[in-house]
Amino acid sequence: MFLFCLLLVVYCGTICGNLLTITLVSISKNLHTPMYFFICQLSISEVFLTTDIVPFMFYILLNNGGTITFNGCVTQFFFFSAPEVFECFLLTVMSYDRYVAICNPLRYSSIMTTDYCVKLVVSCWLAVFFIVGIDTSTLFLLRFCGTNIIDHFFCDLVPLLEIACSGSQLAELEVSLVGSPTLCIQITIITVSYVNIITTILKIPSNISRQKAFSTCSSHLIVVSIFYCTLFIVYAYPTKGQSSTISKVLSLLYTVFTPFINPIIYSLRNKDIMKAIKKLIHNYLDMSELLHKVRAVCARFRRSHPAAARLSALQRNFRLSSHRLICDMSTRWNSTLFMLERLSSSSRP
């Protein structure tokens, strides 16, 4: 029960944190830059990832186990692998973005245009569907002649290969031919990008400028380190001597806890995000105060007949639409909008 409550808190925090990031990037004009566009895409993929894994994990914990059809298992694997592989590609693209921003700042705005950023994200998704489609298709070649019990929280490739009695060689070959080279290319691009970034930063004479330049990529570097380290331990580290408990804990790190801490890393270490959060809170408080005053005005004219008669006379004098003011109600959709529109139409232009 403790694990269930812990995962529930983490899951709610993950959804709220990533949705907050998506909302801030969408509504704040100061965050309409390539870096925050990619952070927004990262948050979207992490919402998909946790939503695919965690609800079924709750079902398993509450029932001390669970059942799933083979087609359902393959479907879960597909929707788990797609955002996971997309995150690999996106972190690589983000490292390239930081490389251009720091190593070639004068041409940054001309290189990382909106169209180019969208094309990069679309290319990542196309590559994801190609790779994950091949991975998923190989699962249909597996044959299960013994126990069909998966000692894991979700349908992952390694647990399925462990209980398969045939067909696993082709799946392992596919991972070696497609997955490993792709991962090596991504890690190489990230490594080369950060080697050039660090070299460029060290050449900056001013300490303040060096700290400012490094702060723009430090959050991404932390996320990359956490993500690839856990991914390497789970899939590249030999699992024969690794207990199932350790394997489950490591899987929880990159499927549940990494999406939870990523918004924290990007928000707490980012002044622009914190400034956008403060502005959002300030706008909300201003709107709450405004609505409180509007409700008081509407209630005044609704309850007082002399005030309502005076309002009607003023509307006739200024040739405005003669309508009574309306108050919003929590049980009616869009009533607050109608209240503001009615007040606006009754105001002098």
List keywords for this structure.
349 residues, mainly alpha, 78% helix, 0% strand
How would you describe what is shown here?
The protein has 349 residues and is an all-alpha fold. 78% of the residues lie in helices and 0% in strands. Helix 2 (34-63) runs antiparallel to helix 3 (70-103), helix 3 (70-103) packs antiparallel against helix 8 and helix 5 packs antiparallel against helix 7. It starts with a helix and ends with a helix. The mean pLDDT is 82.
Classify the helix fraction into a percent range.
Answer: over 70%
Number of strand elements: 0
H/E topology pattern: HHHHHHHHHHHH
Alpha carbon gyration radius: 27 Å
What percentage of the residues does DSSP assign to strands (E)? under 5%
Global outline: globular
Category from helices, strands and their pairing: mainly alpha
Q: Biggest sheet: strands, sense, closure? A: none
N→C terminal distance: 61 Å
Q: How many helices does DSSP assign? A: 12
Reconstruct the topology from this structure.
Layout: H1 2-27, H2 34-63, H3 70-103, H4 108-111, H5 114-139, H6 157-163, H7 168-202, H8 207-235, H9 244-268, H10 271-303, H11 305-317, H12 335-345
Helix pairs in contact: 1-2, 1-9, 2-3, 2-9, 3-5, 3-7, 3-8, 5-7, 8-9, 10-11, 10-12
Task: Summarize, please.
By secondary structure, the protein is mainly α. The protein is 78% helix and 0% strand.
